Amino acid sequence: MRFEHAADLDKPLGVTLEKGTYYWCRCGKSNTPPYCDGSHDGTGMTPLRFEADGETPIALCLCGLTSNPPHCDGSHVDY
Predict the structure, then answer these.
(1) What is the domain range of residue 57?
(2) Interval 26-57: pLDDT, tens
(3) Cβ distance 69 to 26 under 8 Å?
(4) Angle CA(70)–CA(19)–CA(2) in degrees, nearest 5?
């Protein structure tokens, strides 16, 4: 699955998120990748819930090709 809106999303998003719950888009239709914006409604898919500790930097997948969601695994390099 590749995000529909991933034209320029060929590298991960490096962030340290505030402590809390986040939702990573799995349908590829989000207008706000890598985060779910509800575009999956009617697709039968649901976003991936993940927790951030507010301290650890992470690389979030933006292309949707990772095999370790929501983390980037470098799959965008081979696309």
Answers:
(1) 1-66
(2) 988 888 889 999 999 999 999 999 999 999 99
(3) yes
(4) 15
